[in-house]
Amino acid sequence: MDERSDPIRNEDAPDELQARRETMFMIPAAPAIWAAHFLASYVTAAIWCAKIAGRDGSLEGARWLLAGYTGVALVAIAMIGVRGFRHHSYGDATAPHDFDTAADRHRFLGFSTFLLAALSFVAVIFVAMVVVFTETCR
Amino acid sequence: MASQTEDSIATLLGETSVLVPAGRSAERIADLSWWLFGSATLIWFVVLGLSVYAAYVRPGAHDVARVRLMIVGGGAVLPTILLGGVLAYSLWLMPQVKPPIPEGAVEIEVEGLRWWWRVRYASEEGGATEVANELALPVGRPAVLRLTSPDVIHSFWVPALAGKTDMIPGRETIIVLEPTRTGVFRGACAEYCGTSHALMNFAVLVLEPDAYEGWLARQGAPAQEPEGPLEARGAAVFREYGCGACHAIRGTQANGVVGPDLTHVGSRRTLGAGALPNTPEDYVDWIARTHEVKPDANMPPFGMLPDDDLAALAAYLDGLT
Amino acid sequence: MNARAKLLDWARTRPGESVKAAQERRLSKAWETPKGWRYWSAVNNTEVGLWYTICAFVFFLFAGVLALIMRAQLAVPDNDLVTADQYNQIFTLHGSVMMFLFGVPSFEAFSILVLPQMLGARDLPFPRLSAFGFWCFLIGGVFVCGSLFFGIAPKGGWFMYPPLTTEYQDGYGADIWLLGLSFIEIASIAAAVELIVGALKTRPPGMRINLMPLYAWYVLVVAGMILFAFPPLIAGDLLFEMQRAFDWPFFDPDRGGDPLLWQHLFWIFGHPEVYIIFLPAIALVATMIPTFAGRPLVGYSWVVLAAVGTGFISFGLWVHHMYATGLPNVSLGFFSAASVSVAIPTGVQIFCFIATMLVGRATTNVPLLYVSGAFAVFVLGGLTGVMVALVPFDLQVHDTYFIVAHLHYVLVGGVVFPILGAIHYFFPLVNGKSLSPRLGTIAFWLAFVGFNLAFWPMHISGLRGMPRRVFTYEAGMGLELLNMISTIGAFTLAAGLAVFLWDVVRPKSRQPLSPRNPWNAGTIEWAAKIPPEPWGARTIPAVSSRYPLWDQENFLDDYDHGRFYLPDAEEVKRETIITTVIDAVPIQCLRVPGPTWLTLIAAAGAGGLFVLATFKLYVLALLCGAIGFATILIWLWTGTALEPEKEEKDIGLGVTVPLYASGPASVGWWAMFITMIGDATAFAGLVFGYYFFWTVHPQFPPAGADGPGTFWPLVSLGLLALAWAATLAARGLIRREHRGGGIAALALGALSTIAGVAALAAGPWLTGMDPTVHAYEATVWVLVLWTGIHGAIGLVMQLYCIARAAAGRLTARRDIDIANVALYWHFMLATIAVTVATIAGFPLLS
């Protein structure tokens, strides 16, 4: 019988995965870091320009802060991505991770986490590009 | 309403295309626009060609592994590079499009009101020259416009010169214009501001420096005395009906500040912020049928005036060049 | 081979037909749709979903007619077909209706209708909540649309910017918009809660998270977005209505307010809104494409990435509607960066769809035609979307017809065309008849050509300087021909939609029934019999593939013979299976309630509250509100946390699960948790207002302003923390069968809640803060008001639990009420803590 057509195939799950109570929290983790970075950058710049530098003031100090945020965010996202990729390559199966098994569910969650980490990584870099090109609060 | 003759409102208000720029900021944006339009057209044809090919020409003939590569390459990597590039380009443009406030610029205050524009040129002696629904700029010299609104949100937009900037009650916003060629350019309110939002336009005259100084001097001068008996009668009507409570005509007792300054209204290209051209008949239309011309305008219609008085008033105002 | 497979094999050897007939009789009885006038008391998803969908489309047609009036007005320059005032009402309603009464509801309506079928569930977990939401939607929608016929429709644009709408537009228009649509927003959030719980908890056994239909993934993402996007608008609506009705100056710059606060709150909602409307349509495409290709979608994980990624990033775009407001370049840059990055996931989705067609054997049919048309239109809209994401370009085209063109390319291409295709595709599931391919093709070409004729020229109109929302334009600007073409195109598009509509409503009694699964799709909704049965799923299947109809051998036969789970309704009760979130292991057999009038009465009461408040008839409004509130209490008392007649039930294939669950295992707990997330988001919107004022004012709180002090706020914090602790203690006592102790703890909690709310109000009251003086006072009061109302709700919950415990319905084993109330109180504690920290703590720092 073709593997795919077995109605309730449920074997290859190793005990460690079967028992593991996995959650979905890894999936939104990387975009949540993007959101935190985005918000922190926006709030920092807004407060800097409204309260510290003034309307036409220099952005200098805020730029260093934002560079720091970006470094932290990128490292955190990269760690999540690596972890996701490790889950994705669990065992020797390849995508599309569409078997009704704990192992494939594990790989799928890992792969989605990895892809979202990649997207979030790029999105954080895009946000960081702004302070490269902007020098004042105008 | 306006007939499509040589001096239609559209002609009077001037050029209005984003893609035929006459100012530094608008020029940079037009360059960017052409790049965007070109690459978007190309991408659209490629993506659409690919999907028609996939759905109707040769479906099913392709290897999954290779197609996955296409998702990674065409769907993710390539767009990321292109988008990163275009974002960098636009961020690099920002300081040119919304530049810092330059030294030695012409300083102008513009107030957006429902539904007209109050424009004040600070003069060196400390006073200000007030005009309405029209402004002049010297070519080749930056101008800083300080934008405010006492009532609702408006948006100041002269497509040929620059992008738009909102005018927000309680705030002052700034736009820097730097015209690069002479001409007449249309301005409009771009933020919906109530009933007659569509009828809140103005003309920007970009002049050679000498001509600009002459214009400013003329606008700063007090109003002309009425030329003939009809005009004098008009001036009397203006006084009798209390027009001066809302409108100022410098050099006369009329000193109202609610409505537009009319000292040189006859010199303006249009009436009612681009609602009508500027001929004596248009004054009659405006004064007697204000709300047909411009719904909900703050000025009450004076349709009860006898025709003679209206004609005299129109002649007087038309003569205030 | 595992135990489940063995049992299934054994079941196949059993004689089937007589058992099957008896099962189907009982199922029919349990799920019978009420007849006659009682039909309108139905709550089943097949009825409510259908009404909801039809209503959303009626509103769509209404808003479409408004669009035609606008196009007729703009056909020639200086036209006077409608007055400026009428035009402004019409464009305001066109936008508002399309966004609030068609865009979001059509997704929720359609999902209520098909999500359970896609998951092989018999119904969503809270059918009465769906029905309540529908009736709210209908009442609010009719109210808002009807205002046009009395000439009092809102005319501030769908974005309602103050101060135009707060100070310069008298009459009821703005209030109708605010209250009518707030009411609908609440219904939308209710549906979102329902759909999230549905997608997470009512999946069939075996449908692990990696096998979930992509449609369900999108439902999850979109409903989650609604949960975070709508509450800020509700917060904004609250501020707005407080200003209009009671002169609290949130947006009045003369008294410390700021019109931009509204723009922030509105667009924090408004931009995600666009994706909330757009993603479900993409979900339909993701559902249909594999069927056309005859193979699984290529890049399932990539599409999940795209859906989740878009959901997140879309919250970082809101300022891209505010590029011209004079914010610093650096702020604009952040939003531009996010606006650009959101294009990446969108591109990924398109390429996944193309890839699937490339490897599959495509059959060409009418839905595919609509999807192809959607691609052509949407890709262009997406490309202009990238353009307007760039600040310099947007500064020119913002608020011009270029944007009108862009947004219609996105929304018609990305939403309307896929929906039309989906209607064609899913129609046999509604009444067993197919739509005509010939009429469908004619309708498509008319709509497609008409659409492009109407909207493509608008790009050029905008670049030639035509602003949006103008009731007229003058001759000689080079706009005459462009506008005439647009008008001709709009009427051609309308003709296409008319043909489509005729195809839907034309009598089909002589037309033969569609075959079962006419498109040869692979997903479970197509296992339905033609014509469909009221019970939905014949049996809740054991799933082991993303496309069970293609991959699972003998699936339809097993399904028809009820060899999977819950094939019967032995007790003639409506039942469906609740499973775990990640791996879909069955954990409960949920009894769902049947027909009732309570939902309709409750919606009418709530509707009366909002409608009458609009006309400032506050006494009658409160009366209606009280009726609605009482009805909801009756509904809760009689229709929730039902006592099952036994503890467990055998649901087939050797699985026995409990009939009662509480805490995180129950759907009610999840619904409470998700609702409170949305509620907390609205609260965050109000708190944002406070700190926003701090950034715009040189000094905030303003010099000389009396704050609420620290004493009373701290007393309130202490008392409400005590109420929280007492509620938790009550939960513990009740679980340990100390009924008396539980009631006593709850009574203590109730008393300290009352005292706590009073103490909270005492702060600003005793220092004489007048909310009409300055935005500072108003903001403090609105935080107090919000927290006070939540305290009052918490009090009602405590009293409800006392009554339930006294009536013997809340016991150690039946503790769902107190479990959910305790969860509410966790959020309540956070709310009071943040409120006190803000109103009493922050002034000490600044």
From TrEMBL, chain A:
Domain MASE1 intervals: 17-127
Source species, domain of life: Bacteria
InterPro entries in alphabetical order: MASE1 (IPR007895)
The species this protein was found in: Salinarimonas ramus
Protein name (Swiss-Prot/TrEMBL): MASE1 domain-containing protein
Membrane-related topology note: Multi-pass membrane protein
Location within or outside the cell: Cell membrane
GO cellular component terms given for this protein: plasma membrane
TM ranges: 25-50, 62-82, 108-133
Pfam families, alphabetized: MASE1 (PF05231)
Keywords tagged on the record: Cell membrane, Membrane, Transmembrane, Transmembrane helix
From TrEMBL, chain B:
Topology within the bilayer: Multi-pass membrane protein
GO BP terms, alphabetized: ATP synthesis coupled electron transport
Keywords for the protein's UniProt record, in alphabetical order: Copper, Electron transport, Heme, Iron, Membrane, Metal-binding, Respiratory chain, Transmembrane, Transmembrane helix, Transport
Positions of transmembrane segments: 34-57, 69-92
One CC-aspect GO term: membrane
Location in the cell: Membrane
Catalytic activity: 4 Fe(II)-[cytochrome c] + O2 + 8 H(+)(in) = 4 Fe(III)-[cytochrome c] + 2 H2O + 4 H(+)(out)
PROSITE patterns: COX2 (PS00078), COX2_CUA (PS50857), CYTC (PS51007)
Alphabetized SUPFAM superfamilies for the sequence: Cupredoxins, Cytochrome c
InterPro entries: CcO_II, CcO_II-like_C, Copper_CuA, Cupredoxin, CuRO_CcO_Caa3_II, Cyt_c-like_dom, Cyt_c-like_dom_sf, Cyt_c_oxidase_su2
GO molecular function: copper ion binding; cytochrome-c oxidase activity; heme binding; oxidoreductase activity
Domain of life: Bacteria
Predominant place of localization: membrane
Keyword Oxidoreductase found: no
Domain Cytochrome c: 229-321
Domain called Cytochrome oxidase subunit II copper A binding: residue spans: 103-218
Function according to Swiss-Prot or TrEMBL: Subunits I and II form the functional core of the enzyme complex. Electrons originating in cytochrome c are transferred via heme a and Cu(A) to the binuclear center formed by heme a3 and Cu(B).
Similarity annotation: Belongs to the cytochrome c oxidase subunit 2 family.
Protein name in UniProt: Cytochrome aa3 subunit 2
Source species taxonomy: Bacteria, Pseudomonadati, Pseudomonadota, Alphaproteobacteria, Hyphomicrobiales
TrEMBL record, chain C:
Coiled-coil residues: none
Keyword Transmembrane helix: yes
Residue ranges occupied by any Cytochrome oxidase subunit I profile domain in the UniProt entry: 31-544
InterPro entries: Cyt_c_oxase-like_su1_dom, Cyt_c_oxase-like_su1_sf, Cyt_C_Oxase_1, Cyt_c_Oxase_su1_BS, Cyt_c_oxidase_su1_bac, Cyt_c_oxidase_su3-like_sf, Cyt_c_oxidase_su3_a-hlx
Enzyme class of the recorded protein, top EC level: translocase
Pfam families assigned to the protein according to its UniProt record, in alphabetical order: COX1 (PF00115)
Membrane topology according to the record: Multi-pass membrane protein
Any one annotated GO CC term: plasma membrane
Pathway(s) the chain acts in: Energy metabolism; oxidative phosphorylation
The protein's Enzyme Commission number: 7.1.1.9
Residues annotated as transmembrane: 48-70, 90-119, 131-153, 176-200, 212-234, 274-293, 300-320, 332-356, 368-391, 403-427, 439-461, 481-502, 619-637, 669-691, 711-730, 742-766, 778-802, 823-845
Major localisation: membrane
Keywords per UniProt: Cell membrane, Copper, Electron transport, Heme, Iron, Membrane, Metal-binding, Respiratory chain, Translocase, Transmembrane, Transmembrane helix, Transport
Biological processes per GO annotation: aerobic respiration; electron transport coupled proton transport; respiratory electron transport chain
Single GO MF annotation: metal ion binding
PANTHER family in the record: CYTOCHROME BO(3) UBIQUINOL OXIDASE SUBUNIT 1 (PTHR10422:SF35), CYTOCHROME C OXIDASE SUBUNIT 1 (PTHR10422)
Name of the protein described by the UniProt record: cytochrome-c oxidase
